[in-house]
Design brief:
This protein is of the alpha+beta class. It contains 24 helices and 24 strands. The N and C termini lie far apart (94 Å). Bound molecules: 2-(butylsulfanyl)adenosine.
Length: 688
């Protein structure tokens, strides 16, 4: 084939595939095949440098700009939008414009996503992308043509062939219907450039890995990327855009309705939103808008609302504008998820494991429909990395169910009076010096008697997976600590009936029940006791490994970090944490008290399958049992060789029935499975 012909064909083919990939999200060939085409093109261009045209796919990267961008005047003002904060605002808008022009009463509306990106203006002459600008002040923007050229979703030449170019092999599957779309000689469009959320997260993940500063949000990142003087930097950011408006057209006709504009732009090869819809009345437009408030997380970009536009653009233009806001459209805003407010102070909370967590004390602000006064600051490293100072304006985000968090400071808003924050060297609750574990970002208060930790500690000690002391809820735990009866977890075992009766809400029976379940807990396994101690990094699984290895707490208390590390699943940090825990005087005191109280279980054989009366039997438990917790019942059954499963089948040997059973009871009855209560379950063993 003639080389000039092949050159023209290659350009068209590559642009076609580029559009399939970057605009339609529906590639027809692999990256490898694409690269092959591109390499062939590059080779031809190397041999014939004078052939190269501006629309060649190789021409997306350009030279660095000097020290600033040139100005570029827009052919028509780049307008903004008035906001509506809810359905009533939108209705009031329709009422206002209907008074100006009664055609508005019967108007149709187009609803589009309001992308939280950057407005860009694209100029095409004779179908070629020749210039592009930022919005600037709406009259004059900055010429960022070279940067925009790097965005592959922006066609360098329109219309983009929507049918596979001839002479290509792999494209026989697509249709041959060719729709000829005419392009005005001079066409100026507006769109919103943005960084998709996924790409933003990925970018930040990589930066974090490399130990570099991360970006605040997709919008700022996109804005920063587009205003880089070196287009190679812009090119390295996976920016894209959606186009939604014709700013100016000369030498050719363009549609006069917003709905048709979107179809027309799409046919030319531009990326357009696929969730736009046209409605016959405002109420349906509002209803559609509101559905997206709830579904906004499904969008691949950040949207701060939806735009409701009068479909008839002639009518929209005649409605005129107020300041920079056209009357023909309105931004229906979703509740903001990201706001700025003042950081009044930084507080420090102490958690159960003694970890110190900084939190932001904020000037109250509404985020996502809720007033927020506190937000997490993650950890002290985060504060240092982001250089967050007390008195700063900070960006706060609250999305969905996530706890509000500070993203970072708005450094441009600084007055100079902001104060740097120093992490505390002592625990804010007990004043003991805080400690840092090698390889971890957190700082800890390791004082087992720290009052801030005590409540959380006791709560953990008595919890279901630990010593499982029934009847010791958080309220009673607080009562016991406040009254001074409990100063550490071991004090639970010194409680007397007389002392309990002194407390509010305690009568005979309640005190007896509590003391009985405390006494019961003395028989808990070593694994449970180790779990209950709440050693940093030691959960149920490690606790079981430790119990199996050491057999009792005396041996564990005397061990070294090296010895601990020989146990599968115990790494250097956990080992260090364990040794550290047992070395503390306060903890040794607790252990001595526990031993004295008879809370000193010894070895249990873990891992080995028990053989017993229940061997080969399966049990299902439903409802609340009188004295057994679920875990107790399970332990009991397993200790006799039985198996506990979740669902009832014909193979189930027994259903263990408690108070307020679930549907399992019905199922067991219908299948004829034997049903026993807790007392009968115990008797099954005794009978033998
Ligand atoms: S229409 C006359 N449509 O939102 C047309 N704007 O707060 C005025 N935006 O400056 C703009 N998505 O940067 C329109 N689908 C969309 C939009 C959109 C995002 C931005 C645009 C505008 C800002 C107004």
């Amino acid at each position: 084939m003639d080389a000039t012909l092949r050159y023209a064909q290659l350009k068209e083919e590559i642009n076609f595939h580029n559009h399939r990939y970057h605009v339609l999200d529906a590639p027809l060939i692999s990256d490898l095949e694409y690269d092959r085409l591109l390499n062939e093109l590059k080779a031809l261009e190397a041999d014939h440098p004078n052939w190269v045209t501006r629309d060649s796919p190789t021409q997306r990267t350009g030279a660095k700009a000097a020290d600033r961008f040139d100005k570029l005047r827009h052919p028509a003002p780049i307008l903004s939008l008035a906001n509506a904060f809810g359905a009533d605002d939108a209705r009031a808008w329709l009422e206002r414009i209907s008074k100006i022009d009664d055609r508005a009463e019967k108007a149709k509306f187009v609803v589009e996503p309001k992308i939280d990106g950057l407005s860009v203006v694209l100029h095409y002459r004779d179908g070629l992308f020749v210039q592009g600008a930022t919005r600037g002040d709406g009259e004059v923007g900055e010429d960022i043509t070279s940067n925009l050229r790097t965005i592959r979703a922006i066609p360098l030449k329109i219309p983009v062939t929507s049918d596979p170019p001839s002479g290509t092999s792999q494209l026989s599957m697509t249709s041959n219907q060719s729709t000829v779309v005419s392009v005005p000689k001079y066409l100026v469009l507006r769109g919103e450039a943005f960084l998709p959320i996924k790409e933003f997260d990925e970018l930040n993940r990589k930066l974090e890995e490399a130990g570099e500063k991360t970006y605040l949000n997709p919008r700022n990142t996109a804005a920063g990327s587009l205003r880089q003087l070196d287009p190679a930097l812009t090119a390295s950011r996976p920016l894209t855009l959606l186009v939604y408006q014709i700013i100016h057209a000369e030498g050719g006709k363009v549609p006069t309705s917003q709905w048709e504009i979107l179809q027309y732009l799409k046919a030319l090869g531009f990326p357009t939103t696929d969730i736009a819809k046209r409605f016959d009345d405002l109420e349906s437009a509002i209803a559609y808008t509101e559905t997206w408030d709830k579904r906004r997380d499904e969008l691949p970009y950040e949207a701060d609302g939806m735009v409701i536009k009068v479909d008839d653009l002639t009518l929209a233009a005649e409605l005129g504008f107020v300041g920079k806001d056209p009357r023909g459209a309105i931004a229906f805003k979703f509740p903001a998820r990201e706001v700025t407010t003042t950081l009044n102070d930084i507080g420090v909370a102490v958690g159960r494991t003694g970890v110190l967590t900084p939190f932001a004390v904020l000037e109250p602000v509404e985020v996502g429909g809720v007033i927020v006064e506190r937000a997490t600051l993650h950890n002290f490293d985060f504060i240092a990395e982001k250089d967050i100072r007390i008195g700063d304006r900070v960006l706060v985000k609250r999305a969905g169910e996530v706890i509000p968090y500070v993203i970072g400071p708005v450094t441009d808003a600084r007055s100079g009076k902001e104060k740097k924050f120093k992490p505390p060297t002592n625990c804010p609750a007990c004043a003991q010096a805080v400690e840092h574990l090698e390889g971890e970002v957190a700082w800890y208060c390791v004082n087992a008697a720290c009052p801030a930790q005590l409540v959380r500690n006791v709560e953990h000690f008595v919890s279901r997976g630990a010593m499982d002391i029934v009847g010791l809820g958080i309220k009673i735990v607080e009562q016991l600590i406040e009254s001074g009866l409990v100063k550490d977890v071991a004090d639970i075992y010194t409680l007397t009936k007389e002392a309990l009766l002194e407390l509010e809400g305690f009568a005979d029976k309640k005190a007896d029940n509590l003391l009985a379940s405390i006494a019961n807990s003395k028989n808990q396994t070593l694994t449970r006791l180790i779990t209950a101690l709440g050693i940093h990094g030691v959960g149920e699984v490690s606790a079981a490994d430790l119990a199996g290895h050491f057999g009792n707490l005396d041996a564990l208390a005397k061990t070294s970090a090296e010895d601990l590390q020989s146990i599968e699943g115990i790494g250097p940090n956990i080992a260090e944490g364990i040794v550290d825990w047992f070395a503390r005087k306060a903890n040794q005191k607790v252990l001595a008290k526990l031993k004295k109280a008879g809370v000193w279980p010894t070895s249990e054989e873990r891992g080995k399958k028990k053989e017993g009366l229940f061997s080969g039997m399966t049990f299902v438990i439903t409802g609340t049992l009188p004295t057994f917790s679920r875990d107790d019942a399970k332990d009991f059954i397993e200790s006799h060789g039985g198996k506990v499963t979740d669902s009832v089948s014909k193979k189930t040997s027994y259903l263990v029935l408690g108070e307020a059973p679930g549907s399992k009871f019905e199922k067991a009855k219908s299948l004829g499975v034997k049903v026993v209560g807790e007392a009968e379950l115990r008797k099954l063993v005794q009978k033998a």
